[in-house]
Amino acid sequence: METVIQSRSRTVVIGPEQPFCIIGERINPTGRKAFQALLQAGDLSQLEVDVSEQVAGGADMLDVNVGDPLADEVALMGEAIRIVQSLTKRGVRIDFVKEHLGKGSYLYFDQFHHRSDELRAFSEFLDENPMTFRLMGATHEFSCVAFQRVS
Residue 28: which CATH number? Predict the structure, then answer.
């Protein structure tokens, strides 16, 4: 089984018969105090550097995480996605399950079977915000799962 992730101009296929897929994980405040401070100030200027370096390094898609407890995560994520998509045509994995998931949005979980915290957060979010997702793809052992919001 293969997982297919599509952006407007690019398709990434993840599976046992496919070439290795590189997912850039640099856009993440974990362990990056300077980036955390920028996020808390509402400053996303670091994204240009992070996107450029990851694309130059061969990333097939980019993970975007702006989660910081002292920042406006919802507002930052929407703007971060717009900035990243203006800088590259690479697919984007949104590392966040809250209000910015508009109709047509994709949600991708890696290591899904090991991430009970993500599954629980996703389930709680859906309990509070009824919406429908369709399964877009998953690996054989459901370690990577992709959904698309349809309503």
Answer: 3.20.20.20
- Distances from the Cα of 85 to the Cα of 3, 25, 32, 99, 109, angstroms: 21, 15, 22, 19, 19
Which residue in 126, 108, 115, 47 sits closest to 80, CA to CA? 47
Query: Sign of the C-alpha dihedral, residues 90, 25, 120, 73?
Result: negative
- Residue 61 is inside which H or E element, if any? strand 61-64
Q: Which pLDDT does position 101 carry in this prediction?
A: 58
Is 0.70 topped by the overall pTM?
no
User: For the chain, how many structural domains are there in total?
Assistant: 1
As a whole-number percent, the residues of the chain with pLDDT over 90 amount to 22
Q: What is the dihedral of CA 44, 48, 53, 57, to 10 degrees?
A: 100
Average pLDDT, consecutive stretches of 10 residues, N- to C-terminus, the chain (151 residues):
69 80 89 96 97 94 87 81 85 65 59 58 67 61 61 64
Domain that holds residue 81: 3-96+105-149
Cβ count near 10 (within 10 Å) = 13
